Fold Calcineurin-like phosphoesterase family protein.
Amino acid sequence: MEPQELGFTPQRPVGWLAPLLLLSTGLRALLATLFGAYLDKRELQNALDGGWFDHSQTEDGELWLDYVADLGDGFDATYSVAYLLAQAGLEVDGVSLPRGRLLLMGGDQVYPLASGDGYESRMKGPYRAALPEPPLSGPQPTLFALPGNHDWYDGLTAFIRLFARRKDGHIGGWRTEQRRSYFAVKLPANWWLFAIDEQFGAYIDDPQLQYFEQAARHVGPQDRIILMTPSPKWVKSVDNPEEYDAIDYFIRKILDPRGATTRVLVSGDLHHYARYSDTERELITCGGGGAYLVGTQQLPDELIVPQPDTLTRNRSVSRPYAFRKSYPDAEKSRRLGWGVFGRVPTRNPGFVTMLGIIHVLTMLAMAGAAADNSGLVARVFYIPLTVMLVLIIAGSVAFAQPPKADEAKHARHWIAGLLHAAAHIGLAAGGTWLWLSLPFHDWTWPGPLVVAAVGYGPVIGFVATQVTALYLLIASYADVNVNELFAGQGIEDHKSFLRMHIARDGSLTIHPIAVDKISRKWKPDPDGPADSPWLQPRDPLTPRHIEPPIQVR
């Protein structure tokens, strides 16, 4: 089907190492961090409807819920997951799992930057194509969405317009009910769902706390809570103990005083599946809705939550949570990491071009400095060479993303960045030696520049990309640039989502679903029923359990 028929243009996966994207995303993140507190739309949402939502009454006393996060990337991966979520039921390892009455989106509904067009082409369009109309039989499912950091890059403007519409709110066959970026939902059998919006890990604002205080008045000691968060701070607090403080505060101040028990914490943001648990609580990360895969090899075998090193005096009692399962597992993740040498140059041609330009300029500066160390030549080339060396060092260190000086693992990021810079400078020196051993450098100007740009540039760009790929692979073993190792590869397979079931007896069963291989070929189905997907997969989509269903009582 053509874009005119679909109503949107299917998008290719984001090339995360594209130079302009790196620059624009970095600037957006910086501006959001610097000025987000001044443009915090959560404060303004106090003027919007503030009621909680009741989905506790069903005909059979049961409820199915779906959870998906990190979904608005390339069409094939996003639509593969949307297609499965839209089906009336799935057969997973011989078990029939009906479609969720509620679809919960856990954050980052669009990449790389939030905008109306971005949501339309990368999220709303694919989900509308998967379920164009409400189901012809059975109730209409409802969609709730929690914003992630990418949803916040425009100050939450497009998110509110899409998910918090006052009239006729729907995305395809899913209706939308929420009026704010956070929500509380009463579920059957004494279960509640609370979804908090932290806005880049900041404090929980007063209007939001007041909203949840009002909702929590209806919560009693017999109730159990599913808590949705934008990011798995229980994992991130290993490096920064204060990361979990806002979640801990919410549980201590809003939920615990009601006598309710918080049984499940669920989040996306990290693009894989991982579960930690103790006898009373499940900590689940499930960010496999469509974005590039992130490996799991760096996950610890045990988490202490909250971290004892947090400065918060009144924190909850620290408890150990054992690692249970990840998808993909650590061994598979390490094997996937080795694909960096082939995938980075093919998925990010602009990155190859950028490195080629940098190395051509550095080589010409080095060659000019080596040819004559005095007079005009020195004045012309010494300054550019210095500039290029500073650019390489600064860029390599920034790429390693060193945390603040008072945070853990600060030194290793600086060391990794400097070693990465040294590798590129060494490569530039070797390229200069090779250049000077060839006759091109003696040609009449601009002959050397033309040969360097046309012949030397593409070759050195590819070699420099391989140097960066090797750096990413080695640095990942020191837990540095793990995200970039996988973002640069843009692996679309190995997707995941959750299908949850609340039974009449009050038990919650969580089915973690894996999609090992997405579909990349689609065929239109113009004669199907009104609620059937517009596009059917030519490649089979075979969901399976990541681990046995998780029982929570």
Q: What stands out?
A: The CA atoms of residues 265 and 406 lie 29 Å apart. The chain has a mean pLDDT of 87.
